[in-house]
Amino acid sequence: MHDSAQHTGPPGQEAVAAGLPEAVAATAVPERAGAPAAGDRPELGTAQRWRAVLVLGSLIALGPLSIDTYLPALPALTRDLDASASAVQLTLTGTLVGLGLGQLVIGPLSDALGRRRPLLAGIALHIVASLLCAMAPNIAVLGVLRVLQGIGVAAASVVATAVVRDLFTGSTAAAVLSRLILVMGVAPVLAPSLGGAVLAVGSWRTVFHVLAVLGALLMLVALFALRETLPPQRRTPVGLRPVLRGYRELLGDRSLVGLMLVAGLTMAAVFAYVSGSPFVLQEGFGLDESTFALVFGAGAVGLVAASQWNVVLLRRWAPEAILSTALVAGALAGVVLVVTAVTGLGGMLGILLPLWVVLAVVALCGPNAAAVALSRHGERAGAAAALLGASQFGIGALVAPLTGAGGGGSALPMALTIAGTLLVAAVVARLVLRRGGEVAPATA
Q1: How far is CA 27 from the centre of its chain?
Q2: Which has fewest Cβ within 10 Å: 16, 96, 365, 444?
């Protein structure tokens, strides 16, 4: 299908996001929810499309950078602040709580005020919170500051997702989100290695100084490389009542609620891995910080590769079909992980292989769940993206501390958590997804 038939946003918006002259955006017209794609939109070249993907991907990467860069420092932080493994994992929970709550506020704000202003304010909050984290005197203060840091990160995540929905829908949106994972996938690959390098010359506090610098760099990206994609005529009213009314309408969509639960449970499996693997691999299997960073990065490489395979799959199958099948595969991998954690079969490799399958499954689930959920709510893309993000990080925040319940080096709590969340997600997906008709092939 011709590329112009895949886009549902107003003419000129994609050009604005891609950094084309603002005059192009003057042709933007209000979008009617569920309207067919316009056939007269300006065609973008490959370089311009990839520029938009790189800009949005770099913004979404702020979340993984904030979470993953300090993962190698968790054992050292435990000793330095005289805290338990579960207490230290609560600092990760604090970030996830901030990400979830922040998106619920920032999403509707971006629908009412446009995408840029909430984004810039959130990144500024992240920079300030990172600097304060570096001075935290105890684990309780650090946990509170990580909540603030998460709220700042939420702006980048929800705004980038909303911009994708401003410009694309359906299979093409899923393909673009998969391309974003390619860009943001560099973050979890490099972040633990960056954290390990920082720890070689400094302490866990230095890691937060580095995060502040990264936030400042992304602030420059947002200022100079991302223009507004939501024209005034498509914005929602400002105020608490319109926000609550919008959320009520969204939550009345049972399919959206089901997909929120699926997205949250799937992401919870990832956070169980993120919060549990430093202790399992470093304390349970004796890896040093540098080796852990390499192993963690290998899993992220698999995640990125699977996300790009998703683009190929979307040319033949609907996002719903890919999502349902991937969840079944992930649930089976979770069961295998529990077996190897209990029996010790295969040693460290017996743990890593099913974990890497789980990460690959998540790369297939995330973009497709988001594309299906957002396809019916283009008029409230920010609020819908916020609900999806809040469910992901909210459920993840509840799950992360469970991985430390059995002791720092035990893989069983992590395995049980991953298997349980993916099994429930697979069941929910079967209940809420129906077989769709023919879909247009993805072109991103």
Answers
A1: 32
A2: 444
Q: What is the pLDDT of residues 382-401, one digit of tens each?
A: 788 788 877 877 787 677 66
**pLDDT of 173 above 60:** yes
Tokens (6 digits) for 2: 């011709």
> pLDDT grade, residue 43 (50/70/90)?
very low
| Higher-pLDDT residue of 129, 6 | 129
What span, in angstroms and rounded, lies between the C-alpha atoms of 3 and 37?
Answer: 11
CB of 112 closer than 8 Å to CB of 237: yes
CB of 125 closer than 8 Å to CB of 148: yes
pLDDT of residue 421: 92
Measure the CA–CA gap between 413 and 164, rounded to whole angstroms: 36
pLDDT digits (tens, 9 = 90+) for 253-282: 888 888 888 988 988 888 888 778 888 888
Provide the pLDDT confidence category of residue 41 given band limits of 50, 70 and 90: very low
> Does the pLDDT of residue 324 top 50, yes or no?
yes
H, E, C per residue of the chain = CCHHHHCCCCCCHHHHHCCCCHHHHCCCCCCCCCCCCCCCCCCCCHHHHHHHHHHHHHHHCHHHHHHHCCHHHHHHHHHHCCCCHHHHHHHHHHHHHHHHHHHHHHHHHHHHHCCHHHHHHHHHHHHHHHHHHCCCCCHHHHHHHHHHHHHHHHHHHHHHHHHHHHHCCHHHHHHHHHHHHHHHCHHHHHHHHHHHHHHHHCCHHHHHHHHHHHHHHHHHHHHHHCCCCCCHHHCCCCCHHHHHHHHHHHHCCHHHHHHHHHHHHHHHHHHHHHHHHHHHHHHHCCCCHHHHHHHHHHHHHHHHHHHHHHHHHCCCCCHHHHHHHHHHHHHHHHHHHHHHHHHCCCHHHHHHHHHHHHHHHHHHHHHHHHHHHHCCCHHHHHHHHHHHHHHHHHHHHHHHHHHHCCCCCCCHHHHHHHHHHHHHHHHHHHHHCCCCCCCCCCCC
CB 230 within 8 A of CB 111: yes
Q: What is the pTM of this model?
A: 0.65
CA distances from 151 to 173, 344, 360 (A): 25, 39, 27
- What residue has token string 């005289």? 82
Percentage of the chain beyond pLDDT 70 is 80
